[in-house]
Amino acid sequence: MSGVQDVTASPGQNAIIMVFGLDDPAQARERVLDLCGRLPALVRSELNRFPDSLAGMVVAFGARAWAGLLPGWPVPGELSVFEPIQGERHLAPSTPGDLFFHVRSARMDVCQELAAHVSRALSGVAESLDETHGFRYFDSRAIIGFVDGTENPSAEEAQGFATIAPDPAVTGKADFSGGSYVFIQKYLHDLKAWEELPVEEQEKAIGRRKFDDLELDGPAKPANAHNAVTNIRDQDGGELKIVRANIAFANPSRGEYGTYFLGYAGKFSTTRRMLQNMFLGDPPGNTDRLLDFSRAVSGTLFFAPSAGYLELLASEA
Ligand code: HEM
Q1: DSSP H/E element including 182
Q2: What residues pair up with 20 in beta bridges, in sequence order?
Q3: Which of 226, 272, 289, 301 to mutate to test the pocket of ligand 1 (most atoms within 8 A of CB)?
Q4: What is the total count of domains within the chain?
Q5: Which of 18, 15, 10 is nearest to 107 (CA)?
Q6: Is 236 part of the annotated catalytic residue set?
Q7: How far away, in angstroms, is 223 Cα from ligand 1 center?
Q8: Whose CA is nearest to atom 38 of ligand 1?
Q9: Given the CA of residue 294, which atom of ligand 1 is nearest to it?
Q10: CA atoms within 13 A on the CB side of 224
Q11: CB of 2 closer than 8 Å to CB of 9
């Protein structure tokens, strides 16, 4: 699937990620809501012209923007400004962001065209806070060389984990079902230190083998492996998952190599628990080994309404 607000679509493709700040949300209201109304047609046009492009776009709103653009409207229950997580050795910072656009496609030219339409539509009312161009790296690997996304929920399960479940008792503007909490974090890797690590040690940091992506078994997987600390369960032993849409990026001439983490969840509390395990450790101190080579330089929470809710927003324009 692809299109607008399909948060589980085409993982591992190229992407342009844009974060904007709004000078004055009340003043930007007309322009932003009008753009929301036009997004489905913009993406449809790309899919019509380039059926294999798997073009898709997700727009999402930060807490300040939601309140400012939609005064008097109900606010999604878990939408607030991300509280930073400060551990003894690692920090997950909180950085500003009002609007988020996740543009993805198998074709970078299609990503570019969609990103340009959005940027033109917001010119004068929104300031670019970050723009990152990510690429599919070989067989969907993170820039540190490991396949990324293997344990994402299956296509059948993804919607259930990535979006808010319907509740028949809630209707109208308060019905956020099908919407998703998007948490984004830009990481820079110390690639030199990482590459100096023997492959076996890298594998222990991730919890999987590098070449063939096999999971390390039992005692071979350390407690501080990335896939050990982020594997969490509820009280009844059920696995708690999110849908990750991470993308690799690089600016080699500047020595910058990174992972843009994008996590879509029906419950932000799930993402937050994973972050706490990584940055603080559970038990405390058992922090993620991957963080010894990766520094989070941003952290922002947004809410991506469902395609239906986006229409409702646009009808206010
Ligand atoms: C430096 C940034 C990151 C990199 C390079 C990275 C990379 C990876 C890789 C290579 C895997 C193993 C393959 C897979 O199952 O996808 C993985 C698994 C996973 N990651 Fe990350 N990740 C990063 C950040 C995060 C963050 C911030 C979270 C959560 C907030 C997270 C959550 C997960 C989860 C839930 C799994 C699957 C664990 C399981 O096996 O059950 N990752 N990641």
Answers
A1: strand 180-189
A2: 99, 128
A3: 226
A4: 1
A5: 15
A6: no
A7: 15
A8: 227
A9: 1
A10: 16
A11: yes
Residue 42 structure tokens? 């913009």
Per-residue pLDDT at 83 exceeds 80:
yes
Sequence-distant (≥ 6) Cβ neighbours of residue 188 within 8 angstroms: 256, 257, 258, 294, 295, 297
For 302, the domain range is 3-314
Check residue 1 and give its pLDDT.
52
| CB-defined site of ligand 1, < 6 Å | 142, 144, 146-151, 185, 187, 206, 208, 226-227, 230-231, 244, 246, 259, 261, 263, 271, 274-275, 290, 294
Q: Which two tokens stand for residue 81?
A: 């400004």
Task: Give yes or no for a contact between 157 and 172, defined as CB atoms under 8 angstroms apart.
Answer: no
pTM of the model: 0.98
Please check the confidence at residue 10 and state whether its pLDDT lies above 90: no
Report the sign of the C-alpha dihedral through residues 216, 218, 221, 226, in that order.
positive
> Could you say which of 130, 148, 175, 288 is catalytic?
148
